[in-house]
Amino acid sequence: MSRKKLTVLDLQEMKERGDRVVWVTAYDFITAQLAEQAGIDMLLVGDSLGMCIYGYDGTIPVTMDQCIYHCEAVRRAARNTFVIGDMPFGSYQISTEAAIANAVRFHKEAHVDAVKLEGGARVADVVRGIANSGMLVMGHIGLTPQSSNALGGFKAQGRTAETAMAVIEDARIVYEAGAFSILIEAVPPEVTQIIRDDLPIPVYSIGAGIHADGQLMIVSDLVGHFQAFTPKFVKRYGNVAGEITKSFESYIKDVKKGAFPGDEHTYRMIDGELPRLIHELKK
Ligand code: KIV
User: Fold this and answer.
1) Ligand 1: which of 28, 42, 47, 53 to mutate, most ligand atoms within 8 Å of CB?
2) H or E segment at 45?
3) Count of H helices and E strands in the chain?
4) Alpha carbon of 48 to ligand 1 centroid (Å)
5) pLDDT one-digit tens code per residue, 18-44
6) pLDDT (average), residues 263-281
7) Residue nearest to atom 6 of ligand 1 (CA)
């Protein structure tokens, strides 16, 4: 069933009427296709692909080329879904000009609808530069995995009055710089609520509680595919890793005992061709 792709105006109206946006990350064609068919509103091709696809310990090694490559696959599968490309570490830290050029690459090569980048006050100029170039840019504040070293690990943010104030200020600065929406990660729900009520733009949560204009989950966590660790804010809705393991185990058993391939998986020679072959071999 084809549906109309959401626009930035739709996202804004959804906030205004209290209709929560449901979004997930996606990195490959099939998952993106299933997400669109299921009715997911929005897809993020997150740099979490570093961990979920490439097996890195974090997101720092992820490159622009990897992000573009996965965005292209997702875009091909989900033509009617709002797709956001995640700007990887190093693609927006060096200069505003370089950040704009990389945001342009996401649009020209992978046809994304928006880009996302991490940080508050420190990325205000970059957000402004991308927004002023006519592209949609989403801010990402709170726990920002690309700077987990500086944060002392993958830790929840804004749990004291002072640090909550810093998150709230980051949100306002990113909004004033021109972000069309903000994603808050791993922050107490009260802080998210203050930001959502303060700002006119959509404010989304991943691990930032119920009081948001929508929820994001990492697809590999949601479906039970990624096993290395499970953040507190993850709810598993499936057991894909269990299903894959069961399939492999059954396959191993079948091959070992000669139960696969069966007749139904086997090509037969055309009638009359086998005797002819035997005859040829005897010559
Ligand atoms: O890369 C990603 O998937 C993200 C989420 C952690 C928000 O940025």
Assistant:
1) 47
2) strand 42-45
3) 12, 8
4) 5
5) 999 999 999 999 999 999 999 999 999
6) 97
7) 48
Q: Which CATH architecture has domain 8-238?
A: Alpha-Beta Barrel (3.20)
Residue range 99-146, pLDDT digits in tens:
999 999 999 999 999 999 999 999 999 999 999 999 999 999 999 999
Tens of pLDDT, residue by residue over 158-172, are 999 999 999 999 999
Residue 27 has a CB neighbour count (10 Å cut-off) of 27
Instruction: Say how many Å lie between the CA of residue 272 and the centre of ligand 1.
Output: 60
114 CA distance to ligand 1 middle (Å)? 14
Within a 13 Å sphere around the CA of 89, how many CA atoms are in the beta-carbon half?
14
Query: Apex CA 39: angle with CA 46 and CA 42, to 5°?
Result: 30
DSSP string of 250-270, one letter each residue: HHHHHHHTT-SS-GGG---PP
For the chain, give every domain's residue range: 8-238, 243-281
- The token duo for 112 is 């994304």
Q: What is the pLDDT confidence band of residue 17, given thresholds at 50, 70 and 90?
A: very high
Give catalytic status of residue 118 as yes or no.
no
Predicted pLDDT at 153:
87
Rg (CA), the chain: 23
